[in-house]
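1st attempt posting a full record on here, be nice pls
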Amino acid sequence: MGTYKLQIATGTDLSAGTCDNVSVILVGVQGESDKHQLPRHWSNFQAGAVTDFEINVQKDLGELLLVRLSTERYKTFNMDAWYCRYVNVTSPAGHLYQFPVYAWISSSTPVEIPEGKGQILSEDLHPLLQEQRKAELLKKREAYKWKVYAEDVPQTIDVTDVKKLPPNEQYSYKKRKSFKGGLHFISSEFIADGFLTCMESWTDLEDIKLVAFAKKSNISEIVAKMWKEDSFFGYQYLNGNNPKVIKKCLKIPENFPVDDRMVAHSLGTSTSLQNEMQGGNIFLADYKFLQDIPANKSVNGKQQYVAAPLCLLWKNPQDQLVPIAIQLSQTPGDKSPIFLPSDNEYDWLLAKMWVRNSEFHIHEMVTHYLQIHLLAGTFSIAANRQLPMSHPVYKLIIPHLRYTLDINLVSVAKLVGPGGVFDKAASLDQVGVGILLKKAMKEVTYSSLCLPDDIQARGLETVPNYLYRDDGMKIWAAIESFVSSVVNHYYTSDEMVRGDAELQAWVAEIFTYGFLESEASGIPSSLETKACLIKYLTMVIFRCSAQHSAVGTSQFDFFSWTPNGPSTMKSPPPTAKGVTTMETILATLPAVNTSAFIITYILLLSIEPEDQRRLGNYPDVRFTEEKIQKSIKVFQDKLSEISKYIQKRNESLPLPYPYLDPGLIENSVSV
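the predicted structure (as tokens):
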């Protein structure tokens, strides 16, 4: 009973404000207030507004549990969605209640917002809050329905148009405008120069710089200078845009018959392959996923080609990783020679380019699209279907799922859909991509998604100059520490984890729709302990932020120089040695328009649109507890220390590695 003071904040995006009438009901343990329509003024709910109101309540509500917000059309105006950031309520006794919203409200149907403390469903939870959670999830399950995009790959949301996504999943006006503006600017520039219409082969490698350097970076220029060097070829397996392919080789595969005689030119005669393998110095990159996949036939109306190479690498005494043998198929024989550094210069160069073409496809479709974008999409859909907004795990992970469903729909349409990037400019069209995704999905494991386990499984714990590993492990530890503080605050025992039905439903749904119930993957279908929960959440956050940055923001640097990452090959792989010339290489590389088209695509995905949020930056204050706020500050301080370390180290490196600098990592998969 008395006067309640309200502070209501509207989102800052240009489209966040509303002209509708806004009403509120306060709900407490002893009852609820009447419906109060808040005073109208043009500035009360405009974008960025933080407005104070007072309402008189004629009964004692007791401790506040919920606020109900609703909007109604004003006069003849059409209803427009309103983005509410939060509602703060000060009771007559002076107690502050915080209700974080951070959501679009777009109908007269009331939206119930629980008080901001993270809450796990239990019998002790007030019945009104239990009912609110049930109603919220029922509503969201109608909006977030699963759809089989393709068999044997992670399922996605049953929406084909970004405009029909749930409003909270759509790009902000600012981000959408920035994204479209960047695409238009890049494309129009290349069209004006004639690059996107020329279907001829390159006549000189130097001419590629006219396209590659249209929007150059310092690293892309270095790549264009060093791409032929064996040491740089090997370096990319550690610190390029796909640092997850190689593994330590303890036995030469039977289908890759490399012997000591072949590699004596590289290793010298004082050692042997067996000795070097025992010393942990031999590594393998195997592109078996690409075997027997039909190649694209429609790039400029012509047949393209794809290979499934095997590449053997050696850590030399200078601690450089260098290739020592390449076979361009999975089947050895007279028509599949093993290429060596001692071969003709152009034979060896073309063999490496074929490997880099395979890298392009494995990076884009497996490491980047499948293992990050599609899986992040399943994390997001399942979270919205199974975790209410007041659940601490929802509060923890939702910043790392921001805009993911939007960019994924764009990717399906523009990247792998009919007439998309791969149909127009890659060795694999949408049919081939589908086959590749199915093959790769069968070998996704929990250990491959968890950085420490992945490094150990591939035997790369001690290989020198592995900056992806070194930086990534620091960030993994920082995320794990932050997650631990949150989990330990809300879960006081392993029994609480096992008994959290909402949490278990989230994990089970990811196992079912994301990992297709594959027990062989090792992906948990339930979580038994706090330690298991901490690892799982660390995996989710790391993949949606740091891992995406490592393989996404580096694309332009390493692929904009077409010979270092050709998206397609116009001639078949060589079947004999001694026949390759520079003319052969130019005739094999993508045509001028294909190269320009791919550069346009990777440049767009390397330039972050506006409305960015960096790792650990949580402007949406979903956690209202002081202890969690302190944990966030500790997390941010750790990330700042890592950032300073990386920047200082990079100053002394001839080729810097900036991709896991926390100051550059986006919180979520949003581009």
